[in-house]
Design a protein that fits this description.
Elements: E1 4-5, H1 22-32, H2 43-55, E2 59-64, E3 71-77, E4 85-90, E5 109-111, E6 114-116, H3 120-139, E7 146-151, H4 160-167, E8 177-180, E9 188-192, E10 194-203, H5 218-239, E11 252-260, E12 270-279, H6 285-306, E13 311-320, E14 323-324, H7 330-339, E15 344-347, H8 353-358, E16 363-365, E17 380-382, H9 383-400
Parallel strand pairs: 1-5, 4-7, 4-8, 8-16, 9-15
Antiparallel strand pairs: 2-3, 3-7, 5-6, 6-17, 9-14, 10-12, 10-13, 11-12
This protein binds zinc ion.
Zinc ion binds at residues 90, 122-123, 154, 182.
Length: 401
Protein backbone atom coordinates (compact mmCIF):
# COMPACT_ATOMS: atom_id res chain seq x y z
CA UNK A 1 0.00 0.00 0.00
CA UNK A 2 1.11 3.51 -0.66
CA UNK A 3 0.11 6.55 1.28
CA UNK A 4 -2.20 8.85 -0.60
CA UNK A 5 -0.33 11.87 -1.80
CA UNK A 6 -1.63 15.36 -2.36
CA UNK A 7 -1.24 16.38 -6.02
CA UNK A 8 0.45 19.58 -4.88
CA UNK A 9 3.02 17.56 -2.97
CA UNK A 10 3.66 14.84 -5.53
CA UNK A 11 6.98 14.18 -7.20
CA UNK A 12 9.88 12.08 -6.01
CA UNK A 13 11.08 12.73 -2.50
CA UNK A 14 14.73 13.58 -2.00
CA UNK A 15 16.55 10.60 -0.48
CA UNK A 16 18.06 11.79 2.75
CA UNK A 17 18.51 10.91 6.37
CA UNK A 18 15.23 12.69 7.02
CA UNK A 19 13.28 10.03 5.11
CA UNK A 20 11.95 6.89 6.77
CA UNK A 21 11.88 3.57 4.93
CA UNK A 22 8.91 2.66 2.73
CA UNK A 23 8.10 -0.28 5.06
CA UNK A 24 7.72 2.08 8.00
CA UNK A 25 5.36 4.41 6.15
CA UNK A 26 3.34 1.44 4.85
CA UNK A 27 3.00 0.07 8.35
CA UNK A 28 1.84 3.47 9.66
CA UNK A 29 -0.79 3.48 6.92
CA UNK A 30 -1.96 -0.03 7.95
CA UNK A 31 -2.30 0.95 11.60
CA UNK A 32 -4.01 4.29 11.00
CA UNK A 33 -6.70 2.45 9.00
CA UNK A 34 -7.90 0.65 12.17
CA UNK A 35 -10.39 2.95 13.87
CA UNK A 36 -9.31 2.26 17.45
CA UNK A 37 -11.08 5.21 19.06
CA UNK A 38 -11.12 4.34 22.76
CA UNK A 39 -14.87 3.66 22.87
CA UNK A 40 -14.57 1.08 20.06
CA UNK A 41 -13.03 -2.41 19.98
CA UNK A 42 -9.30 -2.63 19.25
CA UNK A 43 -9.38 -6.34 18.39
CA UNK A 44 -8.79 -5.84 14.66
CA UNK A 45 -5.64 -3.86 15.43
CA UNK A 46 -4.41 -6.36 18.04
CA UNK A 47 -5.11 -9.35 15.74
CA UNK A 48 -3.09 -7.68 13.00
CA UNK A 49 -0.17 -6.90 15.34
CA UNK A 50 -0.30 -10.40 16.83
CA UNK A 51 -0.30 -12.04 13.38
CA UNK A 52 2.59 -9.88 12.23
CA UNK A 53 4.67 -10.73 15.29
CA UNK A 54 3.70 -14.41 15.32
CA UNK A 55 4.93 -14.73 11.74
CA UNK A 56 8.33 -13.62 13.01
CA UNK A 57 8.44 -16.20 15.76
CA UNK A 58 7.20 -14.10 18.66
CA UNK A 59 5.52 -15.73 21.64
CA UNK A 60 2.31 -13.91 22.55
CA UNK A 61 0.39 -13.13 25.72
CA UNK A 62 -3.04 -11.54 25.41
CA UNK A 63 -5.09 -9.96 28.18
CA UNK A 64 -8.66 -8.76 27.66
CA UNK A 65 -11.15 -6.36 29.18
CA UNK A 66 -14.18 -7.84 30.96
CA UNK A 67 -16.36 -7.78 27.82
CA UNK A 68 -13.53 -9.20 25.67
CA UNK A 69 -14.04 -6.31 23.24
CA UNK A 70 -10.50 -5.07 23.76
CA UNK A 71 -7.13 -6.66 24.27
CA UNK A 72 -3.55 -5.96 25.25
CA UNK A 73 -0.78 -7.75 23.43
CA UNK A 74 2.55 -8.62 25.00
CA UNK A 75 4.87 -10.33 22.51
CA UNK A 76 8.44 -11.53 22.87
CA UNK A 77 11.15 -12.16 20.29
CA UNK A 78 14.48 -13.58 21.51
CA UNK A 79 15.72 -15.47 24.58
CA UNK A 80 12.78 -15.31 27.00
CA UNK A 81 14.87 -16.57 29.92
CA UNK A 82 16.69 -13.24 30.19
CA UNK A 83 15.46 -9.79 31.26
CA UNK A 84 14.56 -7.92 28.09
CA UNK A 85 13.60 -4.52 26.77
CA UNK A 86 9.94 -3.49 26.40
CA UNK A 87 8.69 -1.22 23.63
CA UNK A 88 5.33 -0.01 24.85
CA UNK A 89 2.52 1.86 23.17
CA UNK A 90 -1.24 2.28 23.34
CA UNK A 91 -3.39 1.12 20.47
CA UNK A 92 -6.30 3.49 21.12
CA UNK A 93 -6.77 7.00 19.80
CA UNK A 94 -8.93 9.93 20.87
CA UNK A 95 -12.23 10.57 19.04
CA UNK A 96 -12.44 12.60 15.84
CA UNK A 97 -16.08 13.44 16.60
CA UNK A 98 -16.79 17.13 16.17
CA UNK A 99 -13.31 17.84 14.81
CA UNK A 100 -12.83 19.51 11.45
CA UNK A 101 -10.57 17.21 9.38
CA UNK A 102 -9.41 18.02 5.85
CA UNK A 103 -9.50 14.35 4.86
CA UNK A 104 -10.51 10.94 6.25
CA UNK A 105 -8.69 10.68 9.62
CA UNK A 106 -8.35 6.90 9.16
CA UNK A 107 -6.75 7.02 5.69
CA UNK A 108 -3.12 8.12 5.84
CA UNK A 109 -2.51 11.19 3.72
CA UNK A 110 0.91 12.48 2.82
CA UNK A 111 1.35 16.14 2.07
CA UNK A 112 4.83 17.57 1.78
CA UNK A 113 6.97 16.19 4.57
CA UNK A 114 4.05 15.27 6.82
CA UNK A 115 1.83 12.24 7.35
CA UNK A 116 -1.71 13.08 8.41
CA UNK A 117 -4.12 10.79 10.23
CA UNK A 118 -5.60 10.10 13.66
CA UNK A 119 -2.87 8.48 15.74
CA UNK A 120 0.06 9.47 13.52
CA UNK A 121 1.62 11.37 16.44
CA UNK A 122 -0.18 9.72 19.36
CA UNK A 123 1.06 7.03 18.95
CA UNK A 124 0.69 4.56 16.14
CA UNK A 125 3.85 5.63 14.31
CA UNK A 126 5.99 4.29 17.15
CA UNK A 127 4.08 1.00 17.17
CA UNK A 128 4.35 0.82 13.37
CA UNK A 129 8.13 1.31 13.52
CA UNK A 130 8.41 -1.49 16.08
CA UNK A 131 6.27 -3.82 13.93
CA UNK A 132 8.10 -2.89 10.72
CA UNK A 133 11.42 -3.79 12.36
CA UNK A 134 10.13 -7.06 13.89
CA UNK A 135 11.54 -9.16 11.00
CA UNK A 136 14.97 -7.67 11.60
CA UNK A 137 14.79 -8.33 15.35
CA UNK A 138 13.73 -11.90 14.52
CA UNK A 139 16.61 -12.38 12.07
CA UNK A 140 19.27 -11.42 14.63
CA UNK A 141 20.68 -13.47 17.44
CA UNK A 142 19.55 -11.22 20.27
CA UNK A 143 21.49 -11.13 23.52
CA UNK A 144 18.30 -10.22 25.40
CA UNK A 145 14.66 -10.42 24.28
CA UNK A 146 12.66 -7.58 22.79
CA UNK A 147 9.11 -7.26 24.11
CA UNK A 148 6.24 -5.50 22.35
CA UNK A 149 3.56 -4.21 24.73
CA UNK A 150 0.47 -2.77 23.01
CA UNK A 151 -2.38 -1.75 25.29
CA UNK A 152 -6.01 -0.57 25.09
CA UNK A 153 -7.79 2.36 26.75
CA UNK A 154 -4.77 4.50 27.53
CA UNK A 155 -6.52 7.68 26.49
CA UNK A 156 -9.25 7.21 29.08
CA UNK A 157 -6.93 6.67 32.03
CA UNK A 158 -4.24 4.06 31.26
CA UNK A 159 -6.86 1.35 31.88
CA UNK A 160 -5.71 -1.59 29.76
CA UNK A 161 -2.01 -1.52 30.54
CA UNK A 162 -2.74 -2.26 34.21
CA UNK A 163 -3.87 -5.76 33.23
CA UNK A 164 -0.90 -6.19 30.95
CA UNK A 165 1.48 -5.24 33.78
CA UNK A 166 -0.32 -7.55 36.25
CA UNK A 167 0.07 -10.36 33.73
CA UNK A 168 3.85 -9.84 33.59
CA UNK A 169 4.08 -11.61 36.95
CA UNK A 170 3.44 -14.76 34.88
CA UNK A 171 6.74 -14.32 33.01
CA UNK A 172 9.77 -16.41 33.95
CA UNK A 173 11.89 -13.25 34.02
CA UNK A 174 10.79 -9.67 34.42
CA UNK A 175 11.79 -7.14 31.76
CA UNK A 176 14.77 -5.02 32.73
CA UNK A 177 13.58 -1.78 31.23
CA UNK A 178 10.81 -0.19 29.21
CA UNK A 179 10.59 2.52 26.57
CA UNK A 180 7.15 4.08 26.11
CA UNK A 181 6.96 5.66 22.66
CA UNK A 182 4.62 8.58 23.35
CA UNK A 183 5.40 11.57 21.13
CA UNK A 184 8.32 13.45 22.70
CA UNK A 185 10.12 14.40 19.46
CA UNK A 186 12.63 11.71 20.51
CA UNK A 187 13.59 13.57 23.67
CA UNK A 188 14.15 11.31 26.65
CA UNK A 189 11.56 11.91 29.34
CA UNK A 190 12.52 10.62 32.77
CA UNK A 191 9.69 12.08 34.80
CA UNK A 192 6.03 12.93 34.57
CA UNK A 193 3.38 13.87 37.05
CA UNK A 194 0.91 11.42 38.50
CA UNK A 195 -2.82 12.01 38.35
CA UNK A 196 -5.84 11.25 40.48
CA UNK A 197 -9.35 11.92 39.12
CA UNK A 198 -12.20 12.08 41.61
CA UNK A 199 -15.97 12.43 41.38
CA UNK A 200 -17.70 13.88 44.44
CA UNK A 201 -21.42 13.62 45.15
CA UNK A 202 -23.08 15.81 47.74
CA UNK A 203 -26.48 14.56 48.92
CA UNK A 204 -28.48 17.30 50.61
CA UNK A 205 -32.17 17.74 51.33
CA UNK A 206 -34.55 19.69 49.14
CA UNK A 207 -37.29 22.13 50.17
CA UNK A 208 -38.65 25.60 49.54
CA UNK A 209 -35.85 28.13 49.36
CA UNK A 210 -37.77 30.43 51.71
CA UNK A 211 -37.37 27.76 54.39
CA UNK A 212 -33.72 27.05 53.87
CA UNK A 213 -33.18 26.17 57.54
CA UNK A 214 -35.16 22.96 56.85
CA UNK A 215 -32.99 21.80 53.95
CA UNK A 216 -29.36 20.94 53.20
CA UNK A 217 -28.05 22.96 50.27
CA UNK A 218 -25.88 20.55 48.27
CA UNK A 219 -24.61 23.30 45.94
CA UNK A 220 -23.30 25.32 48.87
CA UNK A 221 -21.63 22.31 50.48
CA UNK A 222 -19.97 21.51 47.13
CA UNK A 223 -18.89 25.16 46.85
CA UNK A 224 -17.21 24.91 50.26
CA UNK A 225 -15.24 21.92 49.07
CA UNK A 226 -14.29 23.51 45.74
CA UNK A 227 -13.10 26.56 47.69
CA UNK A 228 -11.11 24.25 49.96
CA UNK A 229 -9.41 22.71 46.91
CA UNK A 230 -8.67 26.18 45.58
CA UNK A 231 -7.06 27.20 48.86
CA UNK A 232 -5.06 23.97 48.78
CA UNK A 233 -3.77 24.90 45.30
CA UNK A 234 -2.82 28.38 46.50
CA UNK A 235 -0.89 26.92 49.43
CA UNK A 236 0.95 24.40 47.21
CA UNK A 237 1.78 27.08 44.65
CA UNK A 238 3.33 29.22 47.37
CA UNK A 239 4.90 26.64 49.66
CA UNK A 240 5.57 23.65 47.37
CA UNK A 241 6.82 21.02 47.26
CA UNK A 242 8.59 22.11 44.07
CA UNK A 243 10.47 20.41 41.27
CA UNK A 244 11.87 22.94 38.76
CA UNK A 245 11.93 20.19 36.09
CA UNK A 246 8.16 20.60 35.66
CA UNK A 247 5.98 23.34 34.24
CA UNK A 248 4.39 24.36 36.55
CA UNK A 249 6.92 23.16 39.13
CA UNK A 250 4.32 21.96 41.67
CA UNK A 251 1.29 19.68 42.04
CA UNK A 252 -1.83 21.12 40.42
CA UNK A 253 -5.36 20.92 41.83
CA UNK A 254 -8.24 21.56 39.46
CA UNK A 255 -12.04 21.33 39.50
CA UNK A 256 -13.36 20.76 35.99
CA UNK A 257 -17.05 19.93 36.24
CA UNK A 258 -19.90 20.87 38.54
CA UNK A 259 -23.61 20.22 38.31
CA UNK A 260 -26.40 20.81 40.80
CA UNK A 261 -29.78 22.33 41.52
CA UNK A 262 -33.08 22.44 39.63
CA UNK A 263 -34.51 25.95 40.17
CA UNK A 264 -33.60 29.06 42.10
CA UNK A 265 -36.46 28.67 44.57
CA UNK A 266 -35.70 25.03 45.43
CA UNK A 267 -33.00 24.02 47.90
CA UNK A 268 -30.70 21.81 45.80
CA UNK A 269 -30.70 18.23 47.04
CA UNK A 270 -27.80 17.14 44.92
CA UNK A 271 -24.55 18.54 43.58
CA UNK A 272 -21.82 16.59 41.80
CA UNK A 273 -18.39 17.85 40.87
CA UNK A 274 -15.17 16.37 39.50
CA UNK A 275 -11.65 17.39 40.31
CA UNK A 276 -8.12 16.16 39.78
CA UNK A 277 -4.70 16.31 41.31
CA UNK A 278 -1.68 16.17 39.01
CA UNK A 279 1.03 15.49 41.49
CA UNK A 280 4.79 15.63 41.42
CA UNK A 281 5.94 11.99 41.71
CA UNK A 282 7.52 12.86 45.07
CA UNK A 283 4.29 14.44 46.38
CA UNK A 284 1.94 11.91 47.95
CA UNK A 285 -1.46 12.52 46.41
CA UNK A 286 -3.11 10.37 49.10
CA UNK A 287 -2.18 12.99 51.69
CA UNK A 288 -4.03 15.64 49.68
CA UNK A 289 -7.05 13.40 49.30
CA UNK A 290 -7.04 12.71 53.06
CA UNK A 291 -7.00 16.46 53.73
CA UNK A 292 -10.12 16.96 51.64
CA UNK A 293 -11.87 13.96 53.17
CA UNK A 294 -11.24 15.32 56.65
CA UNK A 295 -12.61 18.72 55.60
CA UNK A 296 -15.70 16.95 54.23
CA UNK A 297 -16.08 15.16 57.58
CA UNK A 298 -16.09 18.52 59.34
CA UNK A 299 -19.11 19.58 57.27
CA UNK A 300 -21.10 16.48 58.16
CA UNK A 301 -22.48 17.25 61.66
CA UNK A 302 -24.37 20.31 60.43
CA UNK A 303 -25.77 18.39 57.44
CA UNK A 304 -26.81 15.40 59.55
CA UNK A 305 -28.54 17.60 62.12
CA UNK A 306 -31.06 18.50 59.40
CA UNK A 307 -31.27 15.16 57.58
CA UNK A 308 -29.78 11.83 58.55
CA UNK A 309 -29.65 10.79 54.89
CA UNK A 310 -27.38 13.70 53.90
CA UNK A 311 -23.83 12.84 52.98
CA UNK A 312 -20.76 13.29 50.82
CA UNK A 313 -19.26 10.48 48.77
CA UNK A 314 -16.03 10.33 46.79
CA UNK A 315 -15.33 8.09 43.82
CA UNK A 316 -11.58 8.06 43.09
CA UNK A 317 -12.15 6.66 39.65
CA UNK A 318 -8.67 6.92 38.24
CA UNK A 319 -5.20 7.10 39.74
CA UNK A 320 -2.09 6.95 37.56
CA UNK A 321 1.33 6.90 39.16
CA UNK A 322 3.94 9.49 38.31
CA UNK A 323 7.18 8.62 36.57
CA UNK A 324 10.42 9.29 38.40
CA UNK A 325 13.41 7.64 36.75
CA UNK A 326 16.92 8.67 37.79
CA UNK A 327 19.04 10.35 35.14
CA UNK A 328 21.73 7.66 35.53
CA UNK A 329 19.26 4.76 35.51
CA UNK A 330 19.98 2.09 32.89
CA UNK A 331 16.79 2.96 30.96
CA UNK A 332 17.68 6.65 30.82
CA UNK A 333 21.31 6.00 29.88
CA UNK A 334 20.34 3.63 27.08
CA UNK A 335 17.63 5.91 25.66
CA UNK A 336 20.03 8.85 25.65
CA UNK A 337 22.60 6.77 23.77
CA UNK A 338 20.07 5.57 21.21
CA UNK A 339 18.52 8.98 20.63
CA UNK A 340 21.90 10.67 20.36
CA UNK A 341 20.43 13.34 22.61
CA UNK A 342 21.97 13.58 26.03
CA UNK A 343 19.38 15.89 27.53
CA UNK A 344 16.57 14.57 29.66
CA UNK A 345 13.30 16.29 30.49
CA UNK A 346 10.17 16.04 32.58
CA UNK A 347 6.61 16.62 31.38
CA UNK A 348 3.30 17.40 33.02
CA UNK A 349 1.08 14.94 31.12
CA UNK A 350 0.66 11.38 32.38
CA UNK A 351 1.49 8.23 30.46
CA UNK A 352 1.54 4.53 31.18
CA UNK A 353 5.26 4.88 31.95
CA UNK A 354 4.35 5.74 35.54
CA UNK A 355 2.59 2.38 35.90
CA UNK A 356 5.59 0.41 34.56
CA UNK A 357 7.83 2.44 36.85
CA UNK A 358 5.53 1.74 39.79
CA UNK A 359 5.72 -1.98 38.98
CA UNK A 360 9.49 -1.83 39.41
CA UNK A 361 10.46 -1.69 35.73
CA UNK A 362 12.80 1.26 34.99
CA UNK A 363 11.04 3.26 32.28
CA UNK A 364 11.50 6.30 30.09
CA UNK A 365 9.24 7.95 27.53
CA UNK A 366 10.77 8.57 24.12
CA UNK A 367 8.99 8.49 20.79
CA UNK A 368 8.58 10.24 17.45
CA UNK A 369 6.15 13.08 16.81
CA UNK A 370 5.02 15.99 18.91
CA UNK A 371 2.43 16.13 21.66
CA UNK A 372 1.39 19.49 20.17
CA UNK A 373 -0.12 17.66 17.20
CA UNK A 374 -1.79 14.99 19.33
CA UNK A 375 -5.58 14.97 19.85
CA UNK A 376 -6.06 17.71 17.24
CA UNK A 377 -7.89 17.76 13.90
CA UNK A 378 -5.43 17.07 11.06
CA UNK A 379 -3.07 15.34 13.49
CA UNK A 380 0.24 14.67 11.75
CA UNK A 381 3.78 13.45 12.18
CA UNK A 382 6.75 14.88 10.30
CA UNK A 383 8.53 12.32 8.11
CA UNK A 384 11.79 13.44 9.68
CA UNK A 385 10.39 12.36 13.07
CA UNK A 386 9.46 8.94 11.68
CA UNK A 387 13.00 8.64 10.32
CA UNK A 388 14.47 9.59 13.71
CA UNK A 389 12.29 7.02 15.44
CA UNK A 390 13.43 4.40 12.97
CA UNK A 391 17.08 5.27 13.59
CA UNK A 392 16.49 4.98 17.34
CA UNK A 393 15.05 1.46 16.98
CA UNK A 394 17.80 0.38 14.57
CA UNK A 395 20.42 1.47 17.08
CA UNK A 396 18.50 -0.51 19.70
CA UNK A 397 18.65 -3.54 17.42
CA UNK A 398 22.44 -3.16 17.11
CA UNK A 399 22.74 -2.69 20.86
CA UNK A 400 20.80 -5.90 21.55
CA UNK A 401 22.59 -8.06 18.97
ZN1 LIG B 1 -0.67 8.80 23.81
Amino acid sequence: MMARTDPAASGPLPQSAAQPSAQSVEMIERLIAFDTTSYKSNLGFIDFAADTLRRHGATLRLTHDDERRKANLFATIGPADRPGIVLSGHSDVVPVDGQDWTSDPFALRRAGDRLFGRGTADMKSFIALALALAPEFAARRLAVPIHFAFSYDEEIGCIGVRRLIDDLSGLAVRPKLCIVGEPTEMKVIIGHKGKKSVRCQVHGKDGHSALNHLGVNAVEIAADMVAFLRAMQRRIREKGPFDPGYDPPYTTVHTGLIQGGTALNIIPARCDFEFEFRNLPSHDVEDLMAELRSFAQSLMPEMLSVDEAAGITFDEYNTTAGLDTAEDDEAAVLARQLSGNNDVAKVSFTTEAGLFHNAGIPTVVCGPGSIRQAHRPDEYIALEQVAEGERFLRRLLEHMS
